[in-house]
Structure formats: structure tokens, C-alpha cells
Amino acid sequence: MKNVKIAFLCTSLVVSGSASAGWLDFLNQTEEAAETVQNTTATVNKVNTATQAAADVQQVGLVDTLVKQLGVSPEQAQGGAGAIFQTAKNNMTETAFGQVSESVPGMDGILAAAPKAAPASPTANLLTGLANASGNSTLTQAASLLDTFQKLDMSKGMVSQFTPVIVDYVKTNGGEMTANLLQSALTGM
Questions:
Q1: 78 Cβ contact partners less than 8 Å away, ≥ 6 residues apart
Q2: Does residue 52 sit in the same domain as residue 119?
Q3: What is the pLDDT along the chain (189 residues), one digit of tens a residue?
Q4: Do 171 and 111 belong together in one domain?
Q5: How many domains does the structure of the chain reveal?
Q6: Are residues 94 and 165 in the same domain?
Q7: Same domain, 12 and 25
Q8: Handedness of CA 47, 49, 53, 58 (dihedral sign)
Q9: What is the residue-wise DSSP string for 32-48?
Q10: CB-based contacts of 155: which residues, under 8 Å, 6+ apart?
Q11: What pLDDT shows up at residue 16?
């Protein structure tokens, strides 16, 4: 009987040891799984952050681009871009301008930022007078655009600096055909 008790005790210890080993393996696997989940979550967060940063770089706004490239204030950038787009809009079909507008996020705000028509400066009055006398709408639009830039405290020469930046921005975001539509409307003014 004593041998049976010893055998039973040994069997119990073996089974108990196996069960304990199983629980220890299970706990170790659980800890490893939790660590894997944490590592995966951290990796996903890094990928999401990198993806958002790439999207932010691609979606740098036109105003930011003008500020960085031309050294103008955000108000000047927005107002000048608005004046240029308003001029282009006047020379385009609604469909063509809609295509340009789709490539520029916040177009309505940009157009609204262009200074409203007000009494023109003496220089603009002279240009406008000459333009009106000649009946040349292109000259009238050019005089209006120059006046708008002066109202924004920018020189007349800034118009020629804004235009290629804006056309390039539209090309990047809307494609070459859309940029060509814009370029044609601006050179045909």
C-alpha cells in the first residue's frame, strides 16, 4: 500500500508539473502576444504618422507656397492669388474655371480675399483711362490686376512672379491640361 501511495504521489507530481509547465508556457505565450500587439500598434501608428506627413507635404496650400517662394505675407499671397484667379475666371468658361478651381483647395476663400474694386490709384487711373480709350479689354484687365497688387502693398512686378508659381501649383495638383487652361486665360487677358 505504501508503494501505491508513493506511485500516486509521483504521478500527481508529474501531472502537476506538466500542468504547471503548461500554464507557464501559456503565460509566456500571452506575454509574447501582448508584446507583439504593442509592437504592431506602434508600427501602425508610425505608418499613419508618416502617411499623414506625406499627405501634408503634398497638400501644402497655394498661399503657403506663395509665402515661402516669394516672401510675401499670407494676406498678400491670398489676395494676389485671388486677383489672378479672378482675372483668369473672367477669361474662361465656367467649366474650364471649375476644372482649375478643383485643383486649388479653398478657391472660394482665395477669390474672396482679392481686394474689391475701389477708387483706383493715379497710375491705375492713367492705365485704365488708356485701356478704356483703346477699347482693349486685355489692357483694362492688366491695369486692374496691377492696381490690385498695389492695394496689397506689392509692386507691379509681383504679378509676373505670382503667375508662374500659381500655374505650377495648378499643374502639380490638377495636371498639365488644367495648367494650360489657366495659362491661356492669363496670357489671353
A1: 63, 109, 110, 113
A2: no
A3: 655 555 555 555 555 555 555 555 655 666 665 565 565 555 545 544 444 433 333 446 999 999 999 999 999 999 999 999 999 999 999 999 999 999 999 999 999 999 986 544 555 555 555 555 555 567 777 888 888 999 999 998 999 999 999 999 999 999 999 999 999 999 875
A4: yes
A5: 2
A6: yes
A7: yes
A8: positive
A9: HHHHHHHHHHHHHHHHH
A10: 149
A11: 55
pTM for the predicted model, two decimal places: 0.61
Q: Are 93 and 115 in contact (CB under 8 A)?
A: no
Regarding whether 120 and 149 lie in a shared domain, the answer is yes
Q: What is the DSSP string of 141-165?
A: HHHHHHHHHHHTT--TTHHHHHHHH
For 25, the domain range is 1-58
Question: In terms of Cα–Cα distance, which of 148, 128, 150, 147 is closest to 139?
Answer: 128
Q: Can you tell me which residue has the cell 486677383?
A: 83
Instruction: Assess whether 73 and 163 both reside in one domain.
Output: yes
Same domain membership, residue 110 and residue 166: yes
Domain check: are 1 and 22 in the same one? yes
For residue 99, give the nearest of 176, 26, 33, 21 by alpha carbon: 176
Residue 57: predicted pLDDT: 39
Contact residues for 59 (Cβ-Cβ < 8 A; gap 6+): 105
